[in-house]
Amino acid sequence: MFENTERTNISEMGEFGLIDHLTKNFPIKNSKTQKGIGDDAAVLDPKEKKVLISTDMLLEGIHFDLAYTPLRHLGYKSVQVNLSDIYAMNGIPEQITVSIGLSSKYTLEAVEEIYEGIYLACEKYGIDLIGGDTTSSKQGLVISVTVLGYADEKDITYRNGAEEGDLICVSGDLGGAYTGLQLLEREKIVYLENPNIQPDLEGKDYIIERQLKPEARRDVIDLLKSREIKPTAMIDVSDGLASEILHICKQSDKGCNLYEEKIPIDPMTFDTAREFNLDPTVCALSGGEDYELLFTIKQADYDKIKHDVDVSIIGYITEASAGYNLISKSGQVHNITAQGWNAFKKQ
Ligand code: ADP
Ligand code: MG
Predict the structure, then answer these.
(1) 3-class state of residue 98 by DSSP
(2) Domain extent at residue 141
(3) 101-128 tens-digit pLDDT
(4) Residue nearest atom 5 of ligand 1, based on CA coordinates
(5) Whose alpha carbon is nearest atom 24 of ligand 1?
(6) What is the pLDDT of residue 5?
(7) Ligand 1 pocket check: which of 133, 134, 135, 145 to mutate, most ligand atoms within 8 Å of Cβ?
(8) What is the CATH number of the domain that holds 276?
(9) Higher pLDDT, 4 or 97
(10) Is 123 a member of any domain?
C-alpha cells in the first residue's frame, strides 16, 4: 500500500507549479514533436506518415484499486494500455498526453509517483509527453492518456481484414493478468480482515506483474516487420481472447476454429487458476488485461514465424456460416461467446 512519508499539499503549489514540477524532466525524443508542453497546444509534424490516435481512461474503483496498486505502476500501466492500441494497428506510438483528476487526498508525493511510472514507460518505449490537463476531482483519481502513433498507410492493420484460411496467432500467454487480479483481491480481503497478516504473494511474481505492470508488445510489431509479415487483421487482448477474436471475426465477416490445447497459458497462471477453482482456459478467454497481440496471417507466411516460441498459432479463420468455435481438449465443439471483462460488470 502507498504510504507517504512526506505530504505536500498540492494546493500550496498552484496548477502551473505542479505541472512544471511534474513534467520538467521529460525530454523530447522524437523529431515529429515540434513543440511539447508549455503552449496552448502541442505541435506535431507527421512527415509522410498517417497519424493514429487512441485514448484510454482509468478510474479509481472501476479500473484500479489503490489498496494493492502502487501509484508508480498505475502511471506505467496507464501508458502501456495506450501504447498497446497503437501497436495493435501495426503503428509506432511517439507521443502521449496525460490528463489527471485529483481529489484533495492526493499529495504532491503521490502524484510524483504516478509521473515516475509515466516517465519509465516513456523512456522505455521512446515516447514524448507533450501535454495534458490537470483538474481536481470530488472523489478519487482519474487518469486519461491519449496516444499518437504513426504508420505508413500500407502497414496499418485493421480488425476487418481476416480471410478464410488465415492462421490465428497470439503473442505471449493469456489469463495471467486475471489470475493475478484474483490473487490481489484475495489478499486485500485477508488484509482488511486482519492488517497484521502479511500478503502471501510468494512465488507469484509473474502473474502479479501481468496485472500491475503490463508491457505493450512493441517487440512483436518489430518481429513481424523483420519477417516481412503484414497481419491481415490485428487487435490487442484487453478484454479476453473470446471477446477479441469475435471482434476480428465479426468485423471481417468470418468465422473461426480455435483449439483449446493451443491457447498459451503460463504454468503459474494454470496453477493459480486451479487454486481458485477456475478453469485456466476460461481465464484466458474471459479474463482480460493481458495486452498481448491477437492477429491473423496468411498461410503462406507460416514458415516465416513457425519457430518463434513467443507466438502461438491457436486456430484458423473460416467462412462466417461455420460460426465461432472452440474445439476443447477432448474434441468437443463449443460456441465462443463474448464474456470479456468489462468495466461495467464490476459496479
Ligand atoms: P490551458 O489552460 O491552456 O489548458 P494548462 O495550464 O492546462 O493550459 O496547461 C499548460 C501546459 O501544460 C499545456 O502544454 C498542457 O498540455 C500541459 N499540461 C497540463 N496538465 C498536464 C499534465 N497533467 N501532464 C502533462 N502536461 C500537462
Ligand atoms: Mg488545461
Answers:
(1) strand
(2) 10-155
(3) 999 889 999 999 999 999 999 999 999 9
(4) 133
(5) 132
(6) 61
(7) 133
(8) 3.90.650.10
(9) 97
(10) yes
